[in-house]
Amino acid sequence: MSVEPSPSVAEETPPRPPRRSGTSAVEVRRSPRRRRTVSAYREGDRTIVLIPARMSEAEEQRWVGVMLDKLAAQESRRTLGDRELAARANRLSAQYLGGRARPASVRWVTNQNTRWGSCTPAEGSIRLSHRLQGMPEYVIDYVLVHELAHLLVPGHGPRFWQLMEAYPRTERARGYLEGVVAATRLPHPSPEAGE
């Protein structure tokens, strides 16, 4: 019977060149010591994702997406106050709508249980449901951009969706929110159901 020596840190696969995701670079590090676990953390303006060396390219891509979403959700749990939310809305307006949407107020509300967000264009006010708190940042940003676009275009006609095309994660965020809605409608399984 032979015993293989455990791989040393020096045997880890060198990290690939970082790729960009949103505003930060993503660096994937493969390790032969990792068997099943995947983890990620922020290091300055980079995100480091640690994966097992045996993972395929497709698995790597899937896990990078999963871990970016988890980190974003953790970060958004550190709840933004209304002031930070307003500053974020202004940045998003500048980035995706040419700065044309200028909200007078942006705030969290606890009385919106059937909508993710709403706005009153005449007042320039935007309200986001507290249920968004803890969701990934790109989802909150989507709802903010959605409401900002309504300050410029009422309704959901072609002009509105043309504005929304500027936000690159629109479809992904909509899918996430649809999944949340679907999950709340599912019957909760009994403890014996999974066994």
Automatic annotation (TrEMBL):
Residues 97-177 form the YgjP-like metallopeptidase domain. Residues 1-35 are annotated as: Disordered. The keyword Hydrolase applies. Pfam families: YgjP-like (PF01863). Signal peptide: none annotated. InterPro entries: UTP_pyrophosphatase-like, YgjP-like_metallopeptidase. Keywords: Hydrolase. The keyword Hydrolase applies. It comes from the Bacteria. One of its GO terms (molecular function) is hydrolase activity. This is Metal-dependent hydrolase. It comes from Streptomyces clavuligerus.
